[in-house]
Amino acid sequence: MSTEFETIQKTENRVTIEPPGRWKVVFFNDDSTPMEYVIEVLQGIFSHDIDNATEITMTIHQAGRGVAGVFVYEIAEQKASETLADSRSRGYSLQVELEKE
């Protein structure tokens, strides 16, 4: 009579969960989008107060680009899409991009 034994190895899986990445919504300066409109978008879509929206708009105007906000990817993408759709519906050529923080 023969007896066989089966060896069972127990492995331990460790999963590391990292916080979601953050993305910057970046506006670029152009010659046709009015500064008043950029301020309006920063207040309406990005919830900035008038002073902060004006400061960001001036940065965009002077430096050629400025950060409208930093969010998890899905929210950054949604805000960028809303901004582009609204600006195109009004005939503006505002450029918006997402950049990993």
Observed structural traits:
101 residues, alpha+beta, Ribosomal Protein L30, Chain: A, 3-stranded antiparallel beta sheet, 3 helices, 3 strands, 21% strand
Account of the protein in words:
- It is a single chain.
- The protein has about 100 residues and is of the alpha+beta class.
- The protein has one domain: Ribosomal protein L7/L12, C-terminal domain/Adaptor protein ClpS (Ribosomal Protein L30, Chain: A, 2-Layer Sandwich).
- About 40% of the residues lie in helices and about 20% in strands.
- The chain has three helices and three strands; from the N terminus they run βααβαβ.
- The chain has helices at about 35-45, 50-65, 75-90, and strands spanning about 20-30, 65-70, 95-100.
- About 20% of the residues are buried.
- The mean pLDDT is about 95.
Blueprint of the fold:
Elements: E1 22-28, H1 35-44, H2 50-63, E2 65-72, H3 73-89, E3 95-100
Antiparallel strand pairs: 1-2, 1-3
Instruction: Look at the structure and give the mean pLDDT.
Output: 93
- The N- and C-terminal alpha carbons lie at a distance of 68 Å
Contiguous uncertain segments of 5+ residues:
none
Kindly provide the radius of gyration, computed on alpha-carbon positions and rounded to a whole number of angstroms: 24 Å
Order of helices and strands: EHHEHE
Brief synopsis:
The chain is 41% helix and 21% strand.
